[in-house]
């Protein structure tokens, strides 16, 4: 049985047994938070438990490395939707130690793309359209600095209300221990 068939088979039993009932909540986050985190599989259940967040408490946005790479990209749009349409009042960026984005090498990734059938011509078309894949695919050297950068992109966004605190945390993907990188309350109070 393939993966999608397994998922659909499970889903039939999930619905028939009304397992969904224990997850029912509204679309509005009870703790009025939007959390941007990395998509690392180790954080799926660990991150909410380590932060004392349950289903319905927060809006969860994910990207590789918890990076906001463009101020008008889909990550920032999701954060703004959470604030303006879904009543979130604070933003928390959560990076993590041992992040795979710190090891990303654009040239090696593009070589893997070619191995999996992406034609050389595709890379030329992309390059000629003005996209610099080496920059777009690069990782980061320091996860703490990366969290600070994402916090800055969010906090300095022209469409973000000035009173919204934007915090930065790092989580240990083994123990769940949280370290504060940016205290958004201090920045909000200082008018930054």
UniProtKB/TrEMBL annotation:
Keywords: Metal-binding, Zinc. Signal peptide: none annotated. The keyword Magnesium does not apply. It catalyses: hydrogencarbonate + H(+) = CO2 + H2O. InterPro entries: Carbonic_anhydrase, Carbonic_anhydrase_sf. Coiled coil: none annotated. Its EC number is 4.2.1.1. Its cofactor is Zn(2+). It comes from the Bacteria. It is an enzyme of class 4 (lyase). PANTHER family: CARBON DISULFIDE HYDROLASE (PTHR43175:SF3), CARBONIC ANHYDRASE (PTHR43175). Belongs to the beta-class carbonic anhydrase family. This is carbonic anhydrase. It comes from Brevibacillus ruminantium.
């Amino acid at each position: 049985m393939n993966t999608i068939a397994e998922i659909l088979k499970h889903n039939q039993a999930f619905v028939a047994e009304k397992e969904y009932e224990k997850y029912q909540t509204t679309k509005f986050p009870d703790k009025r938070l939007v959390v941007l985190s990395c998509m690392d599989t180790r954080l799926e259940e660990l991150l909410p438990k380590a932060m004392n967040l349950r289903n319905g408490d927060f809006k969860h946005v994910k990207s590789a490395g918890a990076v906001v790479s463009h101020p008008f990209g889909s990550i920032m749009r999701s954060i703004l939707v959470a604030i303006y349409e879904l009543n979130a009042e604070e933003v928390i960026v959560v990076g993590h130690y041992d992040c795979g984005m710190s090891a990303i090498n654009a040239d090696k990734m593009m070589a893997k793309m070619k191995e999996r059938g992406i034609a050389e011509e595709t890379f030329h078309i992309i390059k000629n359209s003005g996209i610099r894949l080496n920059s777009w695919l690069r990782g980061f050297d320091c996860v703490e600095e990366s969290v600070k950068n994402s916090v800055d992109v969010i906090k300095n966004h022209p469409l973000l209300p000035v009173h919204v605190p934007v915090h930065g945390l790092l989580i240990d993907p083994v123990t769940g221990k949280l370290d504060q990188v940016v205290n958004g309350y201090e920045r909000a109070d200082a008018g930054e």
